[in-house]
Amino acid sequence: MISLKGEKETVDFGEKISSLLKDGVTLALVGDLGSGKTTLSKAIIHSLTGIEDIPSPTFNIVNEYNANAKTIYHFDFYRLEEESELYGIGFDDYLSNKKAIIIIEWADKFESSLPKNYLKFKFTKYDDARDVEIISVGKKYMSIADEIENLLK
Ligand SMILES: Nc1ncnc2c1ncn2[C@@H]1O[C@H](COP(=O)(O)OP(=O)(O)O)[C@@H](O)[C@H]1O
Ligand SMILES: [Mg+2]
């Protein structure tokens, strides 16, 4: 478990872990509204692509970034009501790009549609801090989960 005290520590954390994120990995960001999912997403996307303007995907469900030889799909499932809506947005097509890094806020809404292997970031919100637990679902990214946990020790 990682404890982040203040927004800057969330941003620094995102920058630090970005180099560990292999092409093709999916990050499932889970936690209450305002727990830091978008803050962490932006830090990772900015660090990997150099892009500055990174809006929350809450309204358009998915934003795509191509820069610095990286492709990142940034999803937010918050406004989706039915799992079947994932077909409408072509979620499977995004997943089939095995080189893309996929970041999904509120991923736990449709857990059965997620790939077999992914990294889950579970946020807990406190007044002035956030805890983040990193869980490898499936075996493929277990070593990255360990590396991330060890990074801040
Ligand atoms: N480690 C932290 N400690 C305290 N506040 C934080 C921390 N990380 C982010 N925040 C703040 O919490 C809010 C998180 O918002 P956001 O990232 O949009 O959350 P979410 O996408 O989970 O709804 C922002 O106001 C941000 O400044
Ligand atoms: Mg958000």
TrEMBL record:
Main location group: cytoplasm
Q: Which UniProt keywords apply?
A: ATP-binding, Cytoplasm, Magnesium, Metal-binding, Nucleotide-binding, tRNA processing
Q: Where in the cell is it found?
A: Cytoplasm
GO MF terms here are: ATP binding; metal ion binding
Quote the InterPro entries the UniProt record gives: P-loop_NTPase, T6A_TsaE
Any one GO cellular component localisation term in the record = cytoplasm
Q: Where are the transmembrane segments?
A: none
Kindly give the Gene3D superfamilies that the UniProt entry links to this protein.
P-loop containing nucleotide triphosphate hydrolases (3.40.50.300)
Gene Ontology biological process terms in this record: tRNA threonylcarbamoyladenosine modification
Homology family: Belongs to the TsaE family.
Q: Which NCBIfam families match?
A: T6A_YjeE
- This protein is called tRNA threonylcarbamoyladenosine biosynthesis protein TsaE
